[in-house]
Amino acid sequence: FCLRARRAGRRVVHLPSVRVLHHQGAAKRRAGPRAKIAYHRSRYRFFRKFHPPWAGRLLAAGTLLRCATNMVFQGALCLGTLFAHAEPRRRLQNEAALLLWHLKGRPDAS
């Protein structure tokens, strides 16, 4: 946001006296697969716009590796708890949706 504001001729200021209460990703935990895909779509657009092509490919490879690793971990957690807990199931579904989106070639990531 700050980069875009600066390039549009806006002034970005820092106010050290302002305090923000951050609930450690509380909204992110409730976000579903569509929100996660939207985040990654935006991330790829940013990389395409401000970084060389190899950086975007490196980002994609790293994201795929992280996604696959998270799926293995969340899957093991689900199996270990016999799918009794909702949070690991939700995370597994999110990671599966993101991995599938990547394997389909990241549609609409232009």
Gist of the model:
The protein is built from five helices and no strands. It has helices at 2-7, 26-30, 33-50, 53-80, 86-103. By secondary structure, it is mainly α.
Topology:
Layout: H1 2-7, H2 26-30, H3 33-50, H4 53-80, H5 86-103
Helix pairs in contact: 3-5, 4-5
Q: How large is the count of helical segments?
A: 5
Query: Any idea what the radius of gyration is?
Result: 18 Å
Mean pLDDT: 87
Element pattern in H and E: HHHHH
Strands, total number: 0
Roughly how many Å apart are the termini?
19 Å
Q: Report the uncertain regions.
A: none
Sheet with most strands = none
How much helix, percentage-wise, in residues? 55-70%
Overview of the structural elements:
This protein has about 110 residues and is mainly alpha-helical. Helix content is about 70%, strand content about 0%. It contains five helices and no strands. Helix 4 (about 55-80) runs antiparallel to helix 5. The longest helix is centred in the middle third of the chain and has 28 residues, at about 55-80. The radius of gyration is 18 Å and the shape is flat. About 5% of the residues are buried.
Descriptors:
single chain; 110 residues; mainly alpha; 5 helices; flat
